[in-house]
Amino acid sequence: MLYVLIIIFILGLGIGSFLNVVLFRMTTEKKFWDGRSECMSCQHKLAWYELIPVVSYLIQRGRCLNCQKSLSIQYPLVELITATLFTAYIYFIIPDIMSIYNLTWLQILEIIIILTLITQLIIVFVYDFQYQLIPTIQLRTIQILGLIYFGIEYYSTRIIPDSLITALACTFVTWFLYFITKKQGIGWGDVELFLGLGLFIPLMWAIPFFFGSFIIGTIWGVSLMIINHNSSLKQKIAFGPSIILSFLIIFTLITIKLVPNVNIWYYLIIPNI
Ligand SMILES: [Zn+2]
Q1: Nearest residue to 137 (alpha-carbon basis) of 158, 164, 116, 111
Q2: Who contacts 91 (Cβ-Cβ below 8 Å, separation ≥6)?
Q3: 77 CA → ligand 1 middle, Å
Q4: Measured between alpha carbons, how far is 76 from 16 in angstroms, rounded to an integer?
Q5: Per-residue pLDDT tens for 24-39?
Q6: Which residues contact 199 (CB under 8 A, 6 or more apart)?
Q7: Is 191 or 267 the better-scoring residue by pLDDT?
Q8: In a shared domain, residues 121 and 205
C-alpha cells in the first residue's frame, strides 16, 4: 500500500516538474515541446541531474550550477504540491488502495478527471498570481472536466446533480458583480472559473465555496497591503487563487467524506427519508 502511494508521489513530482515547464513556456514565446530546459538567467542547458524534481533544487541550494543566480522557489513548490495532492486524492478516492488493480472504468475516469483538474488548477493558480490573468485554454479545460464529472455523477446516481445550480448561481452572481464593479473587482476569467468549478460542488456546499472565495480573497488582499505597506485598494490582486483555494478546501472535505454530501433533489423526490 505504502509502495503504491510512493510511486504515485514520485509520479506526481514528475508531473509537477512538467507543469513548471508548461508554465515557463506559457510566459515565453517558446513552444513547450521545443528544446531542452535552460536556466532563465544564463541560458545554460540543464543536464539530467539538474532536472530531478525537488532533489536538484535542494542539492543546488536553489541556485543555478552555472551562474549561481537563485532559482525560483516556485519550481520545488509546484512539484511538491502536485505530488501531495495526487497522493492524497488517490488515497482518499480509492477505498482500499490495493483495489487499485480492479477499479471500474467509471472510477478510473473519475480519478483521471480529478488529477487533470488538479494540474489545471495549479497552472491557473501560479499564472493568475503572477499575471492577474486566467489563460483561456485552462478555463475551457476546467469547464469540460466539470461537464464530464457532472456526467459521471449523473450516470452513477441517475439523479441530475444539483451542482448544476451551484455552477449557474455562482456564475450569475459573479457575472453581476463583474458589471456593477465595472470589471475592477472581478475579471471575466473569475466568472468563467466559477462556471467550471461549480460543476464539482454540490448545492449544499455552494455558499461555503462561494463566500469562502471572497473571505480568502479579502484576507489575501489585506495581507498584501500590510506586507507592501500599500493602503491603496486600487492595486490589482488576482482573485483566481482565492477561488481555487476555497474550491480545494470544500472539494477535499467532500471527497474524503469529512462532511455530508446529499443531493438536494433527493429530499424533494423522496421527502420521507
Ligand atoms: Zn544560470
Answers
A1: 116
A2: 5, 97
A3: 20
A4: 8
A5: 888 776 665 556 778 8
A6: 143, 146, 147, 149, 150, 161, 163, 164, 166, 167
A7: 191
A8: yes
Confidence bin at 273 (pLDDT 50/70/90): very low
CA of 51 to the centre of ligand 1 (A): 13
Shared domain for 138 and 84, answered yes or no, is no
Tell me, in angstroms, the distance from the centre of ligand 1 to residue 45's CA.
Answer: 9
Closest CA to 32 of 52, 11, 17: 17
Choosing from 102, 125, 144, the residue where a domain stops is: 102
Cα(12) to ligand 1 centroid in Å equals: 26
How many A from CA of 64 to the centre of ligand 1?
5
Q: Do 191 and 136 contact (CB within 8 A), yes or no?
A: no
Cα–Cα distance measured from residue 117 to residue 119, given in angstroms and rounded to the nearest whole number: 5
Chain centre distance of CA 156: 25
pLDDT tens digits, one per residue of 165-214:
999 999 999 999 998 887 677 889 999 999 999 999 999 999 999 999 99
Q: What is the largest CA-CA distance in the chain?
A: 71
Question: By the 8 A CB rule, do 203 and 264 touch?
Answer: yes
86-132 per-position pLDDT tens digit: 999 988 888 676 676 778 888 889 999 999 999 999 999 999 998 88
Which of 102, 120, 138 marks a domain boundary? Answer: 102
Short-list 232, 155, 164, 172, CA closest to 198: 164
Domain of residue 239: give its range: 103-273
**Long-range contact set of residues 115-120: C-beta below 8 Å, sequence gap at least 24:** 115/86, 115/89, 115/90, 116/141, 116/145, 117/142, 117/145, 117/149, 117/200, 118/82, 118/85, 118/86, 118/89, 119/15, 119/19, 119/82, 120/145
